[in-house]
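anyone seen this seq b4? input:
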Amino acid sequence: MKTAHVKWVEGNLMVGSDSKGNSIVVGFSPDREPQWSGVRASDLLMISAASCSTHDVANILNKQKQPLESINVEVKGEQMEEAPYKFTKLHLHFVVKGDIPPEKVAKAIELSEEKYCSVINTLKAGVDITTDFEVIA
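predicted toks r here
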């Protein structure tokens, strides 16, 4: 079983730590005019989905000895307008740089979505998740 921790600092400011002690600031400062000083918790969900899938796609393409130079993913999410503001849709747009056949990129993304990415596989039961990609040589 994995363990993560969240420590409330004050106001709406928290620090989250993973099982290895890596930390991230979550929330906003308690100032009169709040300035976001950390990541929004809802944005963490989108970042988690994208980073999990990016990890898989990079590993798959590297194992296939494809000349991968970079992967950038833009995630767009739609949430309900009222509490609990549940995500209803996530769309991941992959921009893959390298001289890689598009069919290899498509297959790597498909494998991530269907088999490897724990975050996407957890979310897809209740969230409509779509992807697309472009390859830049």
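Strands lie at 5-10, 12-17, 23-28, 70-79, 87-97, 128-136. The mean pLDDT is 93. kinda curious what u guys think
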